[in-house]
């Protein structure tokens, strides 16, 4: 099977428009419950962990909290994210729908592999009307995998993918693609926030400035 495996946040979806308000509201709520006494994370601090595995994300934002507090926060943040999605908040990057449809016409099978929680990942795809474009959706929160490498491997094995691409914006996407023998396309979209470190995509095979550039760089 020929396939393209996409990350979600920072690749197809402008996650900062959901994650920043959701996380900040969740931290305010946690303080009101008397379970947190620190400062509310800044936009930059939240963006820096966007796309990380759930465990790593809360280890960085709540480094001194016990597991119960982290789990409580995880549920609250998800609840707020889904509320925002139901209100129509959040946007796909320009050109996403047209690009995905064209790739389907060219015979590619499309997959999602995200470090996010299953309800969030599926909620975004459904809210934005693109869930039906993907053969299958893999979310680390549901798959029980500890890394993006394992998540992508699970997808490749299940569907016997023999040729493909990994498309994402974080170093974990690059690592997942490389270790699973996929060509890695790194997304560094012009005029949009970048997540993680400055050199996140230094090892990507190809870098693109907009999603529709995929149609130029992906070969049959």
From TrEMBL:
Matches recorded under Pfam families: HAD_2
Signal peptide interval: none
GO molecular function, one term: phosphoglycolate phosphatase activity
GO biological process, one term: DNA repair
Cited InterPro entries: HAD-like_hydrolase_sf (IPR050155), HAD-like_sf (IPR036412), HAD-SF_hydro_IA (IPR006439), HAD_2 (IPR041492), HAD_sf (IPR023214), PGP-like_dom2 (IPR023198)
GO CC annotation: cytosol
PANTHER family: PHOSPHOGLYCOLATE PHOSPHATASE
NCBIfam families, A to Z: HAD-SF-IA-v1
Name this polypeptide is given: Haloacid dehalogenase
Organism whose genome encodes this protein: Thermoflavimicrobium daqui
Lineage: Bacteria, Bacillati, Bacillota, Bacilli, Bacillales
């Amino acid at each position: 099977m020929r396939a393209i495996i996409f990350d979600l946040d920072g690749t197809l979806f402008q996650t900062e428009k959901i994650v920043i308000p959701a996380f900040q509201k969740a931290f305010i709520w946690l303080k009101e419950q008397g379970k947190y006494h620190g400062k509310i994370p800044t936009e930059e601090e939240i963006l820096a962990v966007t796309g990380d595995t759930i465990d790593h994300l809360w280890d960085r934002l709540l480094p001194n909290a016990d597991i119960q507090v982290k789990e409580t926060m995880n549920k609250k943040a998800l609840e707020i994210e889904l509320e925002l999605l139901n209100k129509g908040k959040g946007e796909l990057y320009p050109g996403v729908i047209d690009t995905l449809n064209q790739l389907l016409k060219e015979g590619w099978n499309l997959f999602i592999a995200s470090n996010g929680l299953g309800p969030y990942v599926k909620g975004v795809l459904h809210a934005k009307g693109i869930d039906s474009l993907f053969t299958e959706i893999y979310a680390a929160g549901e798959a029980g995998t500890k890394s993006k490498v394992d998540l992508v491997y699970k997808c490749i094995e299940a569907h016997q993918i023999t040729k493909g691409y990994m498309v994402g914006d974080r170093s974990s996407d690059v690592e997942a693609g490389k270790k699973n023998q996929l060509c890695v396309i790194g997304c560094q979209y012009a005029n949009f926030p970048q997540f993680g470190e400055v050199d996140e995509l230094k090892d990507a095979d190809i870098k693109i400035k907009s999603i529709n550039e995929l149609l130029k760089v992906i070969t049959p």
